[in-house]
Please model this.
Amino acid sequence: MHQILILSGKGGTGKTTVASTFIALSKAKAYADCDVDAPNLHLVMGSFENKKESDYYGLPKAVIDYALCIACNQCFEVCRFDAVVPGPTYHINPVACEGCTFCQYVCPANAIHMEPAKAGELKLFTREDEIFSTATLIMGSGNTGKLVTEVKQQLKNNVQENEIAILDGSPGIGCPVIASLSGVDLALIVSEPSVSAFSDLKRIISSARHLQVPVAVVVNKYDMQERLAEQIAEYCFKEGIPFLGKIPYDEAVVKALNLGKNLAWINSPASDAIKQLYDKTLQVFKELIRS
Ligand code: SF4
Ligand code: SF4
Model:
């Protein structure tokens, strides 16, 4: 499976808008939403005929058997996540427990065991020959990166080996982004002209380089701060990173998204710019998979 990943660093830059437009323009048969904390790609992808759901289990949680506990306080002393609630009846706060098993290791009364804990749901949607993989993490659960890996693996297991997949990546710069980046052929970073977005862009580029993933950059809403948009383009030029273009701020985008419309099917300054970016992205991608 060849993969184009759309990333953003900072949230709210228009990553999913670009990803959903690319999916529609390419008539992609394989795509995924890796933003498992707050998936929203499905909102603009229309309805699907079939949906398969399966439970996702993260790290197990500690549980104390009150009948065996001798209230020695050792579990409370070692827990670095403040998940042990001390006596008179010791118990574990499952939201705070990270499943490290340290308390189980030190308990002199064998009163602690680990139990599997559901952390989310994996979802696989199908429509004719289209496959859409996504997931929802239960609020407060950890292991987002592991679930992102499951989303990608689920897609891979259900498509042809040489299929081109478009992935809507996780926002931010942490663990789920590393999981999103792993093994992709090209990461297109959608930035915006703000100091925080520029800073996050540099950090994602650094992570992508570490994972040897080629990147390209676009700037959305460039006309909100043209000088900063130019600085991002100059930075890319100096770093030898393809800067594929700029998307203007456009009220038509907001109206279309509020109606659940994909930008591929409307004509407006922003949608026209994204269509041109799609052609350029495809060109870079094809050169990469040929080399
Ligand atoms: S498993 Fe780790 S995080 Fe959970 S209660 Fe025990 S020591 Fe704390
Ligand atoms: S370490 Fe074991 S025996 Fe001691 S307080 Fe915790 S659960 Fe009870």
User: Anything to note?
Assistant: The pocket of iron/sulfur cluster (ligand 2) is lined by residues 64, 69-75, 90, 107, 109, 111-112 (CB under 6 Å).
